[in-house]
């Protein structure tokens, strides 16, 4: 192979270029080749991926679900058949945020039952300002006279007291012609069915309680009926002598210490030493001295 002048010159130039390049650049370290810079589109995708990763940490720190995050309207998990008992607040009292934290047993005072004060109206007894009557249509009680009490509110103690009781039908003696002939023999000749008798009663008892017990004790007939509208017992008959037996204005009445109460015998609470008189009237009380009730009040 012949080396021409041209080839020799080219080889020398190449060697010189290589040597010059080596001397100018120096030895190069063994480093990995750099990756080309990402394009704008690629960079945007990486930023988006990083943002999503920051918003989705591990499950232990995950955002609460809609049911858990709602505090204003919690979702009930109680089954209909296992619903908690409903608590009814007092209708006349607004409960504030502070009051709701208190013990409810301290918020609502326990009403006192069966312990009314003597000669005082029951707590639920309201007087109509227009008529002056209570809900049982009781006429206004005269000043200084005992107020009625309600039988269902009375607590009877074991404290024994005494009173006087009598039962008479003197007015029938003057009206025998109006009495049924079959009942004539029921009327005592002196008109006294039970003479004035000292009886024992217990604190809290009423006129009705005493009459019922003593009639049974002395084996004297007595019949009564409860009248819810007046919240009292009504005496229909004693010794088989009934209302209307001696005319349409006849029947049994009672008085205590000379006064004819304008309410029923089971609403009159007795006190020590009271004098109870049951009398039969043939003229709506006028013939036995009760002019007040004769004006329109009931016999019982």
UniProtKB/TrEMBL annotation:
InterPro entries: Transcobalamin-like_C (IPR027954). Residues 34-151 are annotated as: Disordered. Residues 96-106, 127-137 have a biased composition (Basic and acidic residues). This is DUF4430 domain-containing protein. Residues 204-281 form the Transcobalamin-like C-terminal domain. Pfam families: DUF4430 (PF14478). Gene3D superfamilies: 2.170.130.30. Residues 107-123 have a biased composition (Polar residues). Residues 50-70, 80-92 have a biased composition (Low complexity).
